[in-house]
Write a structure and sequence with these properties.
about 150 residues, 4 helices
């Protein structure tokens, strides 16, 4: 049996096992990186919860404060829903506008498109005709020069 550096050391764990253990620790990574040791944290006393209301008037005041907060929250939710609704109507307005525009000016658009396509086709045909004519002319010229 050969004795070497690799045979004298402990067996190394497989890479898959290392990756698996590294991936299994990922959910705890924020806690490991950002939380200092508990001994380094200053000792603050826990805040005491407010004492429960004792009289009926105090209980009614607490209920009124909860209702005021709920009213404020509902008002903001209504405003946000209205704004979101306005934003969701923008695509509908765009589709309606372009449909109206196509119905109103569609014939003019088609005439412009067809005239532009005809002009470009004419240019291409003219360019091809000139090129074909020049190719024929050069071929005839070469035949004349050979004779």
């Amino acid at each position: 049996m050969e004795t070497g550096v690799l045979n004298d050391t402990k067996p190394q764990p497989r890479r898959a096992a290392l990756h698996l253990s590294a991936f299994s620790a990922l959910p705890y990574l924020p806690y490991l990186l950002y939380l200092p040791a508990l001994s380094a944290l200053p000792a603050f006393p826990m805040p005491k919860p407010p004492p429960p209301p004792k009289t009926t008037e105090e209980k009614l005041d607490v209920i009124i404060s909860y209702l005021d907060r709920m009213n404020r929250r509902d008002r903001w939710r209504t405003i946000g829903g209205f704004i979101r609704g306005m934003f969701s109507m923008i695509p509908i307005v765009i589709v309606v506008f372009f449909t109206w525009y196509t119905i109103k000016y569609g014939d003019q658009l088609l005439q412009k498109i067809t005239s532009m396509a005809a002009q470009q086709a004419g240019k291409v045909a003219q360019q091809n005709a000139v090129t074909d004519f020049m190719n024929e002319f050069n071929a005839i010229n070469q035949k004349l020069q050979v004779k």
